Amino acid sequence: SPHKAHLAAVNVSWCSTWEIVQTVVNGTLFYTYSVCSIETTEQDNWLRTTFIQRRPGTSRVSVELSFVVRDCNTFGGASVACKETFNLFISEADADVGTNFRKGQFRKVATIAPDEVTQGRVLKVNTETKTVGPLSKKGFYLGFQDVGACVALLSVRVYYKTCPSTVQSLAVFPETVADALREVEGACIENAVSQATPRIYCTAEGKWVVPMVQCQCLAGYEATGDSCQACKPGYFKPSVSNDLCQVCPDNTKPSASGASECLCEEGFFRAPSDPPTSASPPSAPRDLTSMTLPGEGKLQLFWSPPLVTGGRSDLMYSVVCKLCDEASCIPCGEKIRFEPGPTNLQDPTVVVSDLDSHLNYTFTVEAQSGVSQFSAERPTATITTALDYTDPPKVTEIHLADRSPTSLSLSWTPTRRPPAHINHRYELMYRRKDDSTEGDVTTYKVLILDKSFVQIDGLLPATTYTFRVHALGPEGNPGSYSLMHVCISVIYTAYFLIMTFSPDQHKPLKMYIDPHTYEDPNIAIHKFVTEIDPSVIGKQKVIGVGEFGEVFRGVMKIPGRGEVPVAIKTLKPGYSEKQRQDFLSEATIMGQFSHPNIIHLEGVITKFKHAMIVTEYMENGALDTHLKGRDGEIPPYQLVGMLRGIAAGMKYLSDMNYVHRDLAARNVLVNGNLECKVSDFGLSRVLEDDAEGTYTTRGGKIPIRWTAPEAIAYRKFTSASDVWSFGIVMWEVMAFGERPYWDMSNHEVMKAINENFRLPAPMDCPSTIYQLMLQCWLHERLKRPRFLDIVNFLDKLLKSPESLKTIADFDPRVSIRLPSTSGGDGTMFRSVAEWLESIKMSQYKESFARAGITTMEQVLALRHEDIRNIGVRLPGHMKRIAYSILGLKDETSSLSVFAV
Ligand code: AMP
User: Which protein residue's CA is at the shortest distance from atom 8 of ligand 1?
Assistant: First the structure.
């Protein structure tokens, strides 16, 4: 801390005080503040620091104490008054009041108890850190109250955390005080720019998270570590980008340092719209050939790309057709068609159609690029070719020219005139129409003809014949047929069997499939999830921050449903492929679920640079935040209804063989109808996403307060450990978002659980519900109820609401531990106003005054109905005031433990 403070023992006239004592701890000499007045009761010895200035902007500081406490047993029976704890107090002030010390100005922060007391000569040094805040005045004093312990205070360290000034992805962020999750704006470093202001979050732990930075080095500069350096001579970078400087391309002059382009050498060119990396026009196309295509008058030209492309990617070709004789050439004219076109061809091929079979065509192909216009030379390739008649024409129609009772005269027209040098032949096949019924074999009469007409004699009168004609190529290969029935036409009716299938994907999946079982996560996701077109999504407002980026409220246009509100989870820019897959794994998992109490996935956007996960929108956000401050506003019946929903969702998940591992009220979302839905899936979520996650001795992060002992101890995560977490969620819900185990440390929680302590019933909690919680927290996991049992049990309670009437025993001493609720006999508050202020209930100052409650003695005598009569109506406020009074009466409150 930049503000050093010294401790001073303060003389309170009527008691003995702390002394400075030389103590040897582990061979080192220390000066300690010590007190050891254990002979008589009613000790009240104070030690106070000098004024500690609060740095503006910090509202919370940490106080780390190291101290030694002597075991009372070592004094034998000599001292009945001996204690083993002392108290930490704070008093805020806008100015240094010097040695003027008033106990009443201090409010209690915590009771400090040693982990280990000292019995013999070896001193056991304890270290304890407490967070104090919110602070608002210019500074503060810390006070240490001894009430009869034998204590030596070795050191007091007062500090706050900051996120240190940092450079991330080419943006610089200032040092920022870390006392809550806070968004911080930064700026791009020198020679870098960005369209959006760089942003990042500073966590309460002093860590930078979720950088949203798009800074890029200017043209002529490249990123080297945390700076943008000018390109070296001979190198260049053309634009603002994340690219590195590149060597000047061939045929350019060497550049100077910091160049954004390299100038072309003589004879080389660059178009204005060109990247500065290319310089010369392409050479001629090579190996131009042609091939006649099946069909009418079509041929295809092929060629190879030029040897010199000039290093450009905009290479294109154009084709010109001419009809040439020895003397001159004329254009082929409009009639000829090119597919895909005569110019701007990207592939080295083109199909030419509507050609005449009698003519020789000359095709000229030119390769072009964006710099061709600057060059006088036009390198081209040329071929002269004609249609090649390996391919016979088609016969599309047969005409009946004449008939007699026993003969028919037929003629037909081929699609193309046969060239003079090739003699086309036709094959005519015919049979009686009803001959097909004679056995399996169909027999035709076949005639090969070299003319396109024929007369057939010797036919049966009044009989239907079928004729088929096709042209034969030079090798006798057939062209397309033409078919004709003469005399009577026959109509066929065909029946089709229509088969109906019930496609598999409409049946509910029986088993959850871990996305890891797929080698390619991109296949896994599209098996379960719909890809959404980004154009139907509109983002509106940031509503949260997840591990991978911001969460937005937005709308999705759905044909027939109009615009529906959705939540859009985004992947921050600059992610790695691994992060992208982890991000999308949540959708792969969510997409397999379909249940009213599981957050519904609308779809994903993966084919777009910024991947997104789109889910239904839950108006009331996370369950814990939704409940906080609503003490008593929601009746128990409704809370139990919410729990029933969560249990139903969890039953569904356990039926699917899915173990959630991070069930907690913060991971349940609430919609406008107060329906609860389980959320937060994904493979990495417990490991990285959850701020509650704590590294265990075996590595890996676990949200200790919510996790069953067997899962903490040896990672036995099962539906039964989810049931334990569900019990904690029940407690969170019934306690209106209170933090489980309050400010106990994770270590203390684990210790208490192993010693068979359990959370006490929240205030006003139905006894049946608390009993269910205790069942969920049975040490032996196989004895815990299953989600099926829980849903059935809650259904039963909801069907007979009187079952919720009996309220579980409630011990106020452990349920509320506002730092300032305990203070012995109430004398630490000089006035009723000061006391109300300390419990943040100043709004009732006047009501108390009006009711004539002006001294703390009167406050201590208040009963429930008195408080109500004073005008305190809100149940939450009622509770806070009533239990603060209880706390004032019973100073031991903050030391109580709860046991089952
Ligand atoms: P997550 O990354 O899922 O923990 O989301 C971060 C925060 O965004 C949550 O704590 C919620 O406040 C909010 N959020 C996430 N999904 C939704 C949703 N479907 N509807 C409303 N708020 C949401």
Answer: 544
Q: Which residues contact 18 (CB under 8 A, 6 or more apart)?
A: 9, 33, 34, 35, 45, 46, 47, 144, 146, 153
Q: Report residue 291 CA to chain centroid gap.
A: 55
Contacts of 313 (CB under 8 A, 6+ apart): none
Q: Among this protein's residues, is 890 annotated catalytic?
A: no
Q: Extract long-range pairs of 171-179: CB within 8 Å, 24+ residues apart.
A: 171/198, 171/200, 171/211, 171/213, 171/215, 173/198, 173/200, 173/208, 176/202, 177/55, 177/57, 177/58, 178/202, 178/203, 178/204, 178/205, 178/206, 178/207, 179/58, 179/59, 179/60, 179/133, 179/204
Q: What is the pLDDT of residues 259-278, one digit of tens each?
A: 998 888 877 877 776 666 55
Cα distances (angstroms) measured from residue 732 to each of 85, 665, 779:
30, 7, 20
Closest C-alpha to 40, from 103, 83, 74, 76: 83
Dist CA 794 CA 772 (whole Å) = 9
Please list every protein residue whose CB sits less than 6 Å from any atom of ligand 1: 543-544, 546, 551, 567, 599, 615-618, 621-622, 669, 679-680
**543 annotated as a binding-site residue:** yes
With a cut of 50, list the residues of the chain below it in pLDDT: 1-4, 10-16, 420-421, 437-440, 487-509, 684, 686-688, 699, 813-824, 891-900
Report pLDDT digits (tens) over 557-576.
Answer: 988 778 999 999 999 888 88
Give the closest residue (by CA) to ligand 1 atom 16.
Answer: 567
* Token pair recorded at residue 642: 């919410």
Ligand 1, atom 13: closest residue by C-alpha: 544
Predicted pLDDT of residue 623: 97
Identify the active-site residue in 391, 624, 631, 662.
Answer: 662
Interatomic CA distance for residues 398 and 701, integer angstroms: 83
545 CA to centre of ligand 1 in angstroms:
7
All domains of the chain in start order, with CATH: 3-163 (2.60.120.260), 166-217 (2.60.40.1770), 287-385 (2.60.40.10), 395-509 (2.60.40.10), 526-616 (3.30.200.20), 623-810 (1.10.510.10), 816-894 (1.10.150.50)
What number does the ligand 1 atom closest to the CA of 615 have? Answer: 19
pLDDT tens for 716-751 read: 899 999 999 999 999 999 999 999 988 788 888 998
